[in-house]
Structures are given as structure tokens and as C-alpha cells.
Amino acid sequence: MNILFIEDDTIETMKLQRTVSKFQLKHTIIEARNGEEALKILKSDAELPGIILLDLNMPRMNGIEFLRVLKEDDKLKYLPTIILTTSENRADLLECYRIGIAGYIIKPLKYEDYESKLQKVLAYWDINELVKA
Questions:
Q1: The domain spanning residue 13 has which CATH number?
Q2: How far apart are CA 52 and CA 30, in angstroms?
Q3: pLDDT in tens, 49-79
Q4: Is position 132 within any domain?
């Protein structure tokens, strides 16, 4: 499965790569540092990802702004988008679900908890029938 990981924090990117490697998952991680960069990737001729893991707090175009653009695009709106964030703000949570996300995951402080959550998320989407846009 191809995963578009939209995150501006290098340490978070390293955590994801380490987790995928540790569990020997055969997923391809495509990285974008903000929403603008992610949209360029999605609108290129590259194969679309199976899922998107999206941080909310990023420069240039934050996660919610990216979601709004994504869900207005007839080709991209069906891509399952899972929020992976430190934001426990209820307004963010509600707005993301209103726009149309597939899940909202709070990044835990302990690395072991992060691994556990991420492993479950990826296992779930690995067995799902994904829309091929």
C-alpha cells in the first residue's frame, strides 16, 4: 500500500519510517512537508496513495486547509485521510469529521504507544478495500 504522509516534523517522519520498518510492513511511504507539497504530489502523474496520514499543524497550508481542497476534488475526495496529530482540540476534531476524514488519531507521548496505534491503523487499512481513483 502506498501511504502519503503529510508532516513537517522530521522526527515524526523518522518515527513513522522506524515503525513501518520494525514491523516489516511492505508499505511505500511518500512524504510531503505541508499541504501544498502534498497537493502537487497528488495532482502529478504518480500513482495515488491508498491512504493519507495527515498532521494538522503545518506551515504554508495546514491540515484542515488541505482537507478542504482535497474533498472538493472529484478525483481525490475518496482517498481515506487519517489525521495523526497532537491536537486534542475538540473544534479541530469536529471540523475534520465534518469535512470527511476516515479517522482522528492523537499522537501519544510514549514511542511504544505510538507504535501500537500506528500498527493498528495500518493493519486496518491494509485489509480494507480501497477505492482506486
A1: 3.40.50.2300
A2: 9
A3: 999 999 999 988 999 999 999 999 999 999 9
A4: no
Q: Look at residues 22, 23, 28 and name the one whose alpha carbon lies nearest to residue 1.
A: 28
What single-letter DSSP state applies at residue 43? T
Q: Which residues pair with 85 in a beta bridge?
A: 106
Query: Which residue in 84, 88, 104 sits closest to 96, CA to CA?
Result: 104
Q: Please give the model's pTM, rounded to 2 decimal places.
A: 0.94
Does the residue 113 lie in any domain? yes
* Helix spans in 4-110 (H): 10-22, 35-42, 63-72, 90-99
The cell numbers describing 57, all together, are 499543524
What is the DSSP annotation of 17-28?
Answer: HHHHHHTT--PE
Q: Of 70, 60, 58, 81, nearest to 7 (Cα)?
A: 58
- Structural domain count, the chain: 1
